[in-house]
Amino acid sequence: MTDIAAGETITSPLDVNRFSPDDAADLPAETRELLDRRRGTLGDVTPLLYRRPVHLVRGEGLWLTDADGVRYLDMYNNVASVGHCHPRVVEAVSRQLSTLNTHTRYLHEGVIDYARQLLATLPAAFGEMVFTCTGSEANDLAVRIARHVTGHRGVIVTAGAYHGGTTVSAACSPSVDPAVPDWVRIVPAPDPFREGADESVRSFAAAVARQVDDLTASGIGTAALLVDTVFSSDGIQPGPLGLLGPAVEAVRAGGGLFIADEVQPGFGRLGEGMWGFDRHSVVPDLVTMGKPMAAGIPVAALAATTRTAEAVGRKVPYFNTFGGNPVSMAAAQAVLDVIRDEGLIENAAARGKQLLDGLAPMRESFAVVGDVRVAGLFAGVEIVGAGGAPDTATATAVVNTLRDRGVLLSTAGVHGNVLKIRPPLPIAESEMDHFLQVFGEVLTDLP
């Protein structure tokens, strides 16, 4: 059973704004040669962004520089959450790498100190953490734990969800492969733009409740609702505030847990505390996190409430050779320190307001701008055509024109028509002004 209409196409995040070899003929010879070498070794599995791929060689703060010396304002990269090549992160990693880096089965103070500080940012109910290398691994482990605690197998996810690339997390990612296994149930993400705020809350909870009932009737049962708390891959839906509450209640009434995937919204990006779930006044049972934790050094984590951890005990064995290694922890600690010391959550709030103030009038000025959704430094601009229908082609054209004018972002959503704006957290007022100016010019110049 699925709540998605039969035959509806879901756009994969691997396909949106993707370079096609058909575009290579118009590229410079040296770029074509590099693409040929890449394809000869990496194949076509790993996609590239943009009609004209960007060959980057250097990064600093909000700016990236390509092999020809052209600079780009990065409005997309949450991996370098505190900016590219932040000096404190570079120094912390270099110092630790020159001192010790080993696997995780030895005592080391760095991982303990960091875990304690990170747990302090979560609700008091949370008491334990497990470190992994990727968010995919964290989500995989979260599903395993939920299944053990509940005795059920079923997982409910949204139609455009992307939760990772392991066997389990990819199965929970219908945006990558909509042919999900029998234990996965799909619901549409909330859509206040088309449904209205109150109805989007009601319909989302009702869809989740239907899938809980279906999993029960099938004998599979509900282990968890797994949700990215800003619905990033579904097209960025930060509100209305509190929308997750009724859906979480429906899952728990069916015996399931709530897993909050904070890989994209977490670490202060939304400008209101550290975590996306806080905005909805819910306390998850498990929280997963990843990409922005360590400025590109691979580290991710799962946090569990004390109650959930006690229910598991040692019955879900897990070991990760590199998850939480000394170098990764040095990077993660430096990122956490920078977020605090440089007031980056406050900056996300201030620059987010600037972003909203600049984007909101564009709904009146440009017919293609159907909706603007902003929470801190995470924004979605829905590009539409006649009658408000999703316009994927125009969204892709906007992204590629911005790339050609020195601004990098991409798209999201089940139709690939939502511009995904997600700059590093230290963005300055002048840099936001620059983005808004270039963005307005690109919209003005649309055919």
> Which class of the largest domain in CATH terms?
Alpha Beta
Output the CATH topology of the largest domain.
Answer: Aspartate Aminotransferase, domain 2
Taken from the alpha-carbon principal axes, the silhouette is globular
Domain unit count: 2
Helix content: 25-40%
Would you kindly provide a brief summary of this structure?
37% of the residues lie in helices and 16% in strands.
Draw up the topology in text:
Blueprint: H1 29-42, E1 56-60, E2 63-66, E3 71-74, H2 87-97, H3 109-119, E4 126-132, H4 135-150, E5 154-158, H5 167-171, E6 184-187, H6 192-195, H7 197-217, E7 222-228, H8 244-253, E8 257-261, E9 286-289, E10 300-305, H9 306-312, H10 326-341, H11 344-359, H12 362-365, E11 369-375, E12 378-383, H13 392-404, E13 407-408, E14 410-412, E15 418-421, H14 429-444
Parallel strand pairs: 3-13, 5-6, 5-7, 7-8, 8-9
Antiparallel strand pairs: 1-2, 2-3, 4-10, 9-10, 11-12, 12-15, 14-15
Helix pairs in contact: 2-10, 3-10, 7-8, 11-14
Descriptive account of the structure:
The protein is of the alpha/beta class and 447 residues long. It has 2 domains: 54-82 and 343-444, Aspartate Aminotransferase, domain 1, CATH 3.90.1150.10; 87-341, Aspartate Aminotransferase, domain 2 (3-Layer(aba) Sandwich). The chain is 37% helix and 16% strand. The protein contains 14 helices and 15 strands. The protein has helices at residues 29-42, 87-97, 109-119, 135-150, 167-171, 192-195, 197-217, 244-253, 306-312, 326-341, 344-359, 362-365, 392-404, 429-444; strands spanning 56-60, 63-66, 71-74, 126-132, 154-158, 184-187, 222-228, 257-261, 286-289, 300-305, 369-375, 378-383, 407-408, 410-412, 418-421. It has a 7-stranded mixed β-sheet with strand order 4-10-9-8-7-5-6, with helices on both faces. The chain has a 4-stranded mixed β-sheet with strand order 1-2-3-13. The protein has a 4-stranded antiparallel β-sheet with strand order 11-12-15-14. Strand 11 (369-375) and strand 12 (378-383) form a beta hairpin. Helix 3 (109-119) runs parallel beside helix 10 and helix 11 runs parallel beside helix 14. The mean pLDDT is 94.
